[in-house]
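QA checklist item 7 of 12: single-chain prediction sanity check.
[x] sequence parsed
[x] length recorded as 161
[x] structure emitted
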Amino acid sequence: MKYFLDTEFIEDGKTIDLLSIGIVAEDGRTYYAESSECDLTRASDWVKENVLPHLLGEEKTRKQIAEDIISFARINPEFWGYYADYDWVVLCQLYGRMIDLPKGWPMYCRDLKQLLDERGNPKMPKPLKEHNALSDAQWNWWVYRKLQKMDPSAVKAADPK
């Protein structure tokens, strides 16, 4: 099953600290949580202005979030995100090292931005509540479904000449 994820986080170039995570399963189920362990005093002005106002107060420990996600995503999930490199790292860090991921989980996340590039970068509307992890995850699911319905022959390949 496919799972569309988004996270919000605080990062300083060395550390990525989970603020919130939203995941939407392709069957429509959703998961959302905020980390009770994130140090909000380290938030940049951008995070304070664009992310913190969207937090809902649904705080859990990182351990509880990790356990919840295992129950939610089960075995052999296929994860998708948008510009998902940091999202994937912060999700994986819930389990420790990359090799500590739950059994049957991939060591990579598929990226919608790459799929959009392959389809000629069609214009997509912004998420309803941009920088809310669950809203962004729902948008990711919507974009994926929209791209699957596009006629591949309508995408013009770049002319190498």
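[x] summary fact logged: The two ends are 40 Å apart (CA to CA).
[ ] second reviewer sign-off
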